[in-house]
Design goal:
The protein is mainly α. Helices cover 77% and strands 0% of the residues. Helix 1 packs antiparallel against helix 2, helix 1 crosses helix 3 (44-72) and helix 5 packs antiparallel against helix 6. The chain starts with a helix and ends with a helix.
């Protein structure tokens, strides 16, 4: 049920395709896991599916939450929030660069994919080796360059300086935040108590 919370938040933000994709993957993984574990199936395919679905079930909630945070959080609001919590600038800069990094890499990969399609280099065209060579190598070089550029941009905007950085974004801690924190804290306490202390 907790996993549904970020999916509902994605729907509220009108990211319907992402919410549906995550929901389908998570539901299928849970159904396959319960089916194969209950049937005590043996063999390579059963073991592979159980392992794969177990990984999806364990890590998918974190992936969904991270996807929601990256897609809906503005960098200036994130930095302002981190400063108000007195988080060190080293951590703030690193997280801000990471939040910018993955969307930029997605756009870069889309550009490389379109360029390769124009040249007829596709997985279905029998050029799998060329596809890996012509797509992954430029993407790796782009990752290095984008990381350097984002770090330089963060420092240029005043992050890490001696003077405290101001922000236009005004953040307030409201009642809904308190309710969510209390709900997640209670849920975590119930989970830890039931799993490790058999309460």
């Amino acid at each position: 049920m907790i996993t549904l919370i970020p999916i509902v938040l994605l729907i509220i933000e009108k990211h319907y395709a992402s919410a549906l994709r995550f929901l389908v993957m998570y539901t299928v993984a849970i159904m396959l896991t319960f089916y194969y574990l209950s049937a005590n199936s043996t063999g390579f395919i059963a073991a592979f599916l159980v392992g794969y679905c177990g990984i999806v079930v364990q890590f998918m909630p974190s992936v969904i939450t991270a996807w929601y945070v990256i897609r809906t959080t503005k960098i200036d609001e994130f930095i302002s929030c981190m400063q108000r919590m007195h988080i060190p600038d080293g951590i703030t800069i690193a997280l801000a660069v990471v939040m910018r990094f993955f969307p930029t890499i997605k756009e870069e990969y889309g550009s490389i994919r379109d360029a390769m399609k124009m040249r007829g280099i596709m997985l279905g065209g029998g050029n799998a080796v060329k596809m890996v060579e012509y797509r992954m190598i430029p993407l790796l070089f782009s990752c290095v360059n984008i990381g350097d550029e984002l770090s330089a941009a963060a420092i240029t905007r005043g992050l890490g300086g001696k003077v405290k950085r101001t922000s236009v974004a005004q953040l307030k801690f409201g009642v809904a935040d308190s309710v969510l924190i209390a709900a997640f804290t209670a849920t975590a306490a119930i989970f830890i108590g039931s799993k490790y202390f058999k309460l």
